[in-house]
Specification:
binds flavin-adenine dinucleotide, 3 domains, 20 helices, Helicase, Ruva Protein, domain 3, FAD/NAD(P)-binding domain, globular, alpha+beta, D-Amino Acid Oxidase, Chain A, domain 2, eight-stranded mixed sheet
Length: 566
């Protein structure tokens, strides 16, 4: 059997047609971030009929704007959040097995200086606790580096006053792809996953319980009223706005959120040559930040400040960038990284639960599930790392609130979301050898891909990279590079549109590839070529193609708005 035949087609249009044809579903999930996609995967695998409606692209909210870590969160130990850390490190282990291509061990180096807030002994005790909470199943056991070792491991790091550093392990990921793979798996189990589909109102039945929603197609303008036995509000930073759609009658859940903004900056790896994720305390306020190696780039983040504006307009300010650069200069003084080195930025909102009397970074990352008097199931808070467990809890709650007969409930099956791999992880080698998969990808491409592209695609798509290789082998235009000198190929554009619900240039540059963040000119130099290829596949006319290009240029400009600020 050819690999291609195992991949179900997944275009936005085909999903919309299915939504239009559906009269009702068991579960309507509002929001296609990691939580909504996780809920859809779990619920559809249990045998429930599911529709996800996402007003933008999958993961376009917070779920493509995280620090891209699947981690226990060492710093939460300081806040005595042992339960959260235990849950997170357990999920980290599970995700490493479910998505071995996407969730990869990353060494974290935690330099300790004279006069540091914590001495080496305390940090060492914290490391044992951290490894212990994972039941000693960390990606690798921590070890202690002397100041001399640190100088060898991280030559660019400030050495003055350095006493040593523990080296411990967590995982890095591609947050947008993790979300996408959950959605793909959900669709393979029957879920309808619709993007650019905004819930404009939520309908209630005579008993006052939610019973459906009016959904608008933000691209085509059509509308659809869909009935549902249960509705899940998985709208992250928009949680309160979604509750308000039910007329805000439920005081218990009216102001659940205290969103905080987090910004990252991306620079060339050569300008900030870190070999591990380096953990820093910001010199101004002592907040924890990371400098994270990311292939040919390094990113630094994050800030953590209260935010009250429109969630859709969140962007880095010049103050944010300067704040991050001050930490960079303090820890890597010889590199003199300046504003002109910043290639790109991203900003996101943490959908944290409102707590008063604590600073932004002390707000708990725990989640809360609230069932309103009208039956709306709302989830708030949480982390990317714990999404799978949160999703399972939500679906348990949904099954309780669903008005279904005992017999029907008995027909539900276990979802096995902790056992069955995500699509790209199916068939991945036990020894987690990326190079082995890359070699197969290269062979399947019949010479169209070099080693760098093969490895990059294996890391992004997992075993699904073989499908891209087969396509590139028979189509030289698909095998061509998108940007000269970079690994991305045009086959990724085709695949994104035909199998991964990409509907706009922004989807393609930000979340199906990461050219927006990684390319030196954020993809602007190739935007016309990519637009032409998408236009062919999506039937865009000239006006639509120009509008798409303008929208992408505006997105890049928004991410660079800070440059014009005083
Ligand atoms: P979202 O991803 O925001 O999804 C909600 C979706 O709902 C959006 O896509 C939105 O378009 C959609 N929506 C809203 N209203 C409607 C409507 N009316 N109709 C249809 N759709 C609608 N966690 C970690 O574990 N590791 C990290 O390293 C990490 N780093 C972080 C760094 C930063 C800066 C931030 C901000 C967060 C970080 N987190 C991290 C937390 C993590 O990213 C979030 O908890 C998670 O992504 C939230 O996902 P979500 O699905 O709840 O929300």
């Amino acid at each position: 059997m050819s690999v291609s035949s195992t991949v179900a087609s997944m275009t936005r249009e085909s999903m919309w047609k299915r939504l239009e044809a559906a009269d009702d579903v068991d579960v309507l999930v509002i929001g296609g971030g990691i939580v909504g996609a996780g809920v859809a995967r779990d619920a559809s695998r249990r045998g429930l009929s599911v529709a996800v409606v996402e007003m933008n692209d999958l993961a376009s909210g917070t779920s493509s704007r995280s620090s891209k870590l699947v981690h226990g969160g060492l710093r939460y130990l300081e806040q005595y959040e042992f339960g959260l850390v235990f849950e997170s490190v357990s999920e980290r282990r599970i995700l490493m097995d479910l998505a071995p291509h996407l969730v990869n061990p990353l060494g974290f180096l935690f330099p300790v200086y004279q006069g540091s807030r914590h001495n080496l002994l305390m940090i060492r005790a914290g490391m044992w606790l951290y490894d212990g909470l994972s039941l000693f199943r960390s990606p690798k056991r921590h070890r202690q580096l002397s100041s001399k070792d640190v100088e060898t491991e991280e030559p660019a790091l400030k050495s003055e006053g350095l006493k040593g550093a523990p080296l411990y392990y967590d995982c890095s990921t591609d947050d947008a792809r993790l979300t996408l793979e959950n959605a793909i798996d959900a669709s393979r189990h029957g879920a309808i996953v619709t993007t650019y589909a905004k819930v404009e109102s939520i309908m209630k039945g005579p008993s006052g319980r939610v019973r459906g929603a009016l959904v608008r197609d933000l691209v085509g303008g059509r509308t659809k009223e869909i009935r549902a036995r249960a509705i899940v509000n998985a709208t992250g930073p928009w949680t309160d706005a979604t509750i308000a759609l039910t007329n805000g009658a439920d005081a218990k859940a009216a102001h659940m959120l205290r969103p905080t903004k987090g910004v990252h900056i991306v620079v060339d790896h050569a300008r900030l040559p870190v070999n591990h994720a380096v953990v820093c305390y910001h010199p101004d306020d002592g907040r924890v930040l990371f400098a994270i190696p990311w292939g040919d780039r390094t990113y630094v983040g994050t800030t953590d400040t209260d935010y009250e504006g429109d969630p859709a307009d969140v962007a880095a300010t010049r103050d944010d960038v300067r704040y991050l650069l001050r930490a960079t200069s303090a820890y890597f003084p010889s590199q003199s990284v300046v504003e002109a080195d910043v290639i790109s930025t991203w900003a996101g909102l943490r959908p944290l639960i409102a707590e008063t009397g604590v600073s932004e970074s002390q707000v708990s990352r725990e989640h809360q599930i609230v069932v309103g008097h009208d039956g709306l199931v709302t989830i708030a808070g949480g982390k990317l790392t714990t999404y799978r467990r949160m999703a399972a809890e939500i679906v348990d709650t949904v099954v309780r609130v669903l008005e279904m007969s005992r017999e029907l409930k008995k027909e539900l099956v276990p979802s096995r979301t902790d056992k069955d791999p995500l699509p790209g992880g199916e068939g991945w080698p036990e020894d987690d050898d990326h190079a082995k998969v890359a070699a197969r990808v290269r062979e399947a491409s019949k010479g169209a891909f070099d080693e760098e592209t093969s490895l990059s695609l294996a890391g992004h798509y997992g075993m699904r990279a073989l499908v891209l290789a087969e396509r590139a082998a028979s189509d030289p235009s698909a095998a061509a590079r998108i940007v000269a000198g970079r690994p991305e190929r045009f086959v990724q554009v085709d695949f994104a549109v035909e199998e991964e619900l990409a509907a706009t240039l922004v989807d393609l540059f930000l979340r199906r590839t990461q050219l927006f963040l990684r390319d030196h000119d954020q993809g602007l130099g190739v935007v016309h070529a990519v637009a032409a290829r998408m236009a062919q596949r999506l039937g865009w006319d000239e006006a639509r193609t120009s509008a798409e290009i303008a929208a992408y240029e505006a997105e890049v400009a928004r991410s660079r708005r800070w440059q014009a600020e005083p």
